[in-house]
Amino acid sequence: AQSVAQPEDQVNVAEGNPLTVKCTYSVSGNPYLFWYVQYPNRGLQFLLKYITGDNLVKGSYGFEAEFNKSQTSFHLKKPSALVSDSALYFCAVTRGSTLGRLYFGRGTQLTVWP
Amino acid sequence: EPEVTQTPSHQVTQMGQEVILRCVPISNHLYFYWYRQILGQKVEFLVSFYNNEISEKSEIFDDQFSVERPDGSNFTLKIRSTKLEDSAMYFCASSASTGGGYEQYFGPGTRLTVT
């Protein structure tokens, strides 16, 4: 069965510091991995994805994520956090052979304080 | 930038009533999805829809649920007889294609409260 774990319910960082939001996954076959962000009263916004190729993928708003096959991880990173990055972040996975069904983690609330 | 829209934003209904949640996917997308999130739990897949038929459904999507694309723009989720445990945020999503490599674009959600 496919699953995603986000081990931290909350991550707190100071503005200007680097941030990491962790994600590990379990999937049969090749994984396609995604990060989404949710701001209050908004839908899930796509940030970035890993399909194949370079393990480091870059996305919107300066975010990047590193795919690590041996550790089955796909951690979200940003070199310098902004207060406006404060939101709920979801990691999701699907198998390459599926019809697009996404399996989500529980979400991590990121708070960046000034 | 094109967006997925959903109406209503909040629906309150009594147990046993029928509800229809509406979505307008991005206009050139071909694949449509419904997910739900019960408060404090994961976002869960309900159903995917392509070419006017269900492509895949989860174990949650039982006979009480149905989906329809009644015209060229709307995509609906119907719950025939709501239960208390159907209270959740329901998200509609669409994608240009599938095969796993295409990101899904989500609407803002409809919060369904069953009393």
Using brief descriptors, characterize the structure shown.
heterodimer; A: 114 residues; mainly beta; Immunoglobulin-like; six-stranded mixed sheet; four-stranded antiparallel sheet; 12 strands; globular; B: 115 residues; seven-stranded mixed sheet
Short précis:
Chain A is mainly β. Chain A has a single domain, classed as Sandwich (Immunoglobulin-like).
How much beta of chain A, percentage-wise?
Answer: over 45%
Q: What is the gyration radius of chain A calculated from CA atoms? A: 13 Å
Number of β-strand runs of chain A:
12
Distinct helical segment count of chain B: 0
What is the CATH fold-level name of chain A? Answer: Immunoglobulin-like
Domain unit count of chain B: 1
Number of helices of chain A: 0
Write out the CATH superfamily name of chain A. Answer: Immunoglobulins
Overall pLDDT confidence of chain A: 92
> Would you identify the regions of chain A where 5 or more consecutive residues have pLDDT less than 50?
none
Amino-to-carboxy terminus distance of chain B: 37 Å
CATH architecture of chain B: Sandwich
Task: Report on the biggest sheet of chain B.
Answer: 7 strands, mixed
Q: How much helix is in the residues of chain B?
A: under 10%
β-strand number of chain B: 11
- Report the oligomer: heterodimer
Superfamily at the CATH H level of chain B? Immunoglobulins
